[in-house]
Amino acid sequence: MSTPPDPPVSALPDLNDAESRVPSVLRTAAAYAWRLIAVGIVVRVAFSLLGQFHRVAVAVFLGLVITAVLRPAAGLLARFMPRPLAVATALIGGIVLVLGALALVGETVADQRTGLEKEFVSGIDRIERRLEEPPFRLPPDAFDDLQSRIGKLLSDHRSTLISTALSGASRLVEVLTVLALALFCAVFFTHSGEKQWQWLCDQLPERARQRVAVGAEAAWRTFTGYTHGILLVAATNAVLVGIALFALGVPLAVPLALLEFMAAFIPLIGSPIALAVAAVVALASKGPLIALVVVALIVVIGQIEGHLLHPIVMSWAVRLHPVVVALAVVGGAVAAGVIGAVVAVPLVAVVWSVYQALQGPAGEPA
Asked: CB within 8 A of 56, min separation 6: which ones?
């Protein structure tokens, strides 16, 4: 039985000709599309793994932040004492500073407690009277009805509130565990971080070590620059807010300044939220005029932070467009809440810095 003859070459489909009929724009879009899909799958898997071990990831991130803050001090102390003792001294000094700030806040609140209760009660009465006057004209029993509804709501959901408080206690244990792990990591990162990184690089293929070293150097430079810069911005905001609130006679000026310091770690939205809390305190204690001044302070602090502090202080780190910062903060908050909002901006800055470093001549393989 004879085999059929091969078809002529002209009868076979010309793949090159078929491909040439596809518009170049579509071919380019398809090439980018499957690469973006692959990158998206990798990012999705990475975030899924981080979600499973988010406490460990947060502890390592906090350990890196503590290392970026303490490393200069430890390096300075290491000139006069052994490095282990220098690291211990810097770490203990940092812990004492944080605990001292918290103790100052607690002492301030305790000292002003009696006066605050009277001021808030009288302030709420003033607000009620103003709302009863034109143009609001609320009925006098509106707030009494609101208070009774709040009391009934609390009594009806007492078991839920108790379970929430108990879950909050378990969350406190988790937070303390994460902080302990972060301090543990920070000690070793500060003491011998270079040796640990060198060991990790030695496990990589030789041709990949140069690019990894270049990317890591850019990442750490950007991360430390951002950490130092945001600390300076937060401290400046806290000092300005504390001085302004103290001058206006607003109670709890020190705790509100500390709240501003912590909120400044969330760019764009952190400071306005903290100052909004200060405005509510000012409204209840000093009346609407002082509250309006605090609201104006929100605008002033925002302008100083956005147009002066960030462009000058962040010059050694990567400058990101405000739109990129806003998208990063919102995306991080949606993905991981407050922690995501805090981590998003330095993460985007580090990724962009590594990308730029690997595009340069130093990032090209030998």
From this structure: 181
